[in-house]
Amino acid sequence: METFGSYRLIEQVGHGGMGEVWKAQDTRMDDRWVALKRLLPDLADQAEFRRRFQLEGNIAAKLSEVHVVPVHSVGEIDGQLYIDMRWIEGATLKARMLTAHPTPKAAVEIVADVAGALDAAHAAGLVHRDVKPANIMLTPNGHTYLIDFGLGRGVNQGDGLSLTRPGHVWGTPGYIAPERMAGVPDGPRGDVYSLACVLFELLAGSRAFPDGDVNDDERPDPSALRSDIPKALSAVVRRGMDRDPERRHGSAGEFAHAARKALKGKRRDRPTSPRAPGGGSASAGHGPGGTKIDRPRAATASPRSGTASKLFAGALVVSLTAAVVWFTTGPSGDQDAAAQLPAIQVARSPGSVAVTPDGRTLVVPDSERGTVNVADLKTRAVVDQIQVGADPRAVVLDRSGRRAYVTNAGSGTLSVIDVPGRKIAATIRVGDSPTSAILQNDGSRIFVGNEGSADVVVVDTRTNAVVDTIGIGFLWTTEVHGLALSQDGTRLLATVDTDLGSDTVAVIDVREGRVQREIEVGDEPRGVAISADGKQGYVANSDSGTVSVVDLTNSAVVTDVEIGGAPTELVRRPDGKAVYVTNPSGGVATLDTATNRAPSERLAGDTTATEMALAPDGRSAYLVGPGSPELNVVDLP
User: Fold this and answer.
1) pLDDT of 186
2) Where is the composition biased (Basic residues) (predicted)?
């Protein structure tokens, strides 16, 4: 096995004109897995390439906040420069496009993620200059990364470094902006051009300029190649690819916003598909009769990705997907107003969301960083990040808002947080992969659903001790997901996903601490809610695209309400007249509990958020999620 200083080089996963990328172990850091990028030995003595390589490392250092995959170190060993970065699994967009063709909505969301990364780079005074599908990484849990700043340079400023040679233009034909082809220094709008080319390719299934000739005045029309592409979206793409930089969108974010707006207009004219395919993540909600649910199992990368899935180890810039949340104060439909509000970095991967009873503080677990982030809604600022266990998911607040309980799926623990003191009050071991939780109405006990150990653990909040464990199903074949508690605290519902037979909702007698019965529902049940009188239950069936309305007295499903997509979380309205259903396929459905019907109209129709928390007055809701880069504050009917 080859070594490089303190690194064990396990496998070469990338090789380019300037460097090579290795999957490696750093023996100084307990054999931590890293992505090690090294300047090619043949270039080690060439000043221009050494400076370019060092520039790439400096770029990574400049973008070391939420948008950047951490760079552990930049240095030199035996005369060979290297960049030590965090190891990331995933597949390139180029590789994914070989096996799947995204919908227009999915294509726009991917590009919007990259736009967020580009805006962060441009704000730091840096231009990427090589935006293309091969430099965009998609991870199994929904993150998008823009990678490889090897061709980057300063915005509108000389960096003392020649990135062009006579007769040669650095970059990839088909994505290079016309002005750079002409030898004119390019700025952020050159990246906008490249991003527009990527969106064209995602929409049309082929390159906008397959022969690399970008000098034709007529910009290609993706809607001419695919009937489901709105003309308005096609116009946005063509503007982004305009030969004149001044006629393009002013920023990558502006381009992405225009694309989203064009899609939104199209969706208004088209009824929601009753069983549209969908997927995504789910986590905790907060409201009367609500549910604390975990995320559906992440889809795995295509096996055909092969070695290509490893080429992203050198990722440098993480997109804003599940990383930056935008706080809005008006209805979610006012996208222009929302876009003008300042952003707050809340979490790289928000696991759930909760709001304190006074409506002043937002609490968001960050599943990726292992923190609970506390944001002041009045000042629009994150006031603290509290380190908890690995992969925090559900968050529950007590009635005072002074205690928060967070399940840590990766650590098998429950963190008890002193919210005003911004510190951990206790850490309780509760089981294998705890991903859901709900608090007894009087605050005396908290119920924790363990996905891995197929049980519900009961914790006494006064002593912070486990007082009971309620087994559900068979270990290894059963997963516990959503939880809901009746208003009198005597009946607990738990959604059960099993590999043996039908999926169910388990009805648990809290006083006796046992499962009374299981009622068959739809496929892959996730969120669950219960009526105020405890007689009716509602179960979101992610794979079936339905909500099962369950008569808990007679242990029977009354009806399955078609929602479409992949309904994930349920929150009951305080007056009990409606249940809100989140859906990563877009929007929040409103199920009328009197008629058991859900109109096709959706609240926040363009959001893919799956985590929902009601405001204290019940008149609005906060929505976040890994598939939605914005926190929508939605007015409720």
Assistant:
1) 74
2) 258-269
